[in-house]
Specification:
The chain has 136 residues and is an alpha+beta fold. It contains five helices and five strands, in the order βααββαααββ. The strands form two sheets. It has a three-stranded antiparallel beta sheet. A two-stranded antiparallel ribbon has the order 4-5. β4 and β5 form a beta hairpin. The protein starts with 9 loop residues before the first strand and ends in a 6-residue tail after the last strand.
Length: 136
């Protein structure tokens, strides 16, 4: 996702939700903040920027570049056309995040996975403890 906006061009999360709702964006039946987090997670909108709302305030608040409002309108338009998130991502040119795959373990030279056999506990035992049927 390309960088959007500047420090002067930020909008608070509550204000973004309010403006988007006025423009007809549906955040679904759940929490609008959670929907924004999900759209961020899949890459359709950029991460929120955390900063102090005013000098001397001890907490930070989340802000989005104002351009995110247009992105939300676009995502909502595609969703209303019946497109699922992966199709919306494709339409908006957002690449899907690759799924993590575990690498194959490195084995000593000349040894293959088939040579290791079953490394589980012996039949009838669980973790070194003998397992027996209970007789009634």
């Amino acid at each position: 996702m390309k960088a959007l906006g500047s420090a002067k061009n930020l909008i608070s999360i509550p204000e973004l939700i309010k403006l988007a709702t006025k423009k007809g964006v549906s955040f679904g039946s759940g929490n609008a903040n959670n929907r924004l987090r999900y759209l961020t997670k899949v890459g359709l909108i950029p991460h929120a920027i955390r900063q102090q709302p005013a000098p001397g305030i001890d907490f930070t608040a989340g802000y989005y570049p104002y351009e995110v409002l247009d992105l939300l309108v676009k995502v909502d338009k595609f969703a209303r056309q019946g497109l699922a998130i992966p199709a919306i991502m494709e339409k908006m040119g957002v690449a899907a995040k690759p799924k993590f795959e575990f690498p194959e373990p490195e084995l000593p030279r000349g040894l293959a996975m088939r040579d290791l056999g079953d490394l589980g506990p012996p039949a009838g035992e669980a973790g070194g403890v003998r397992v027996e049927k209970i007789r009634k």
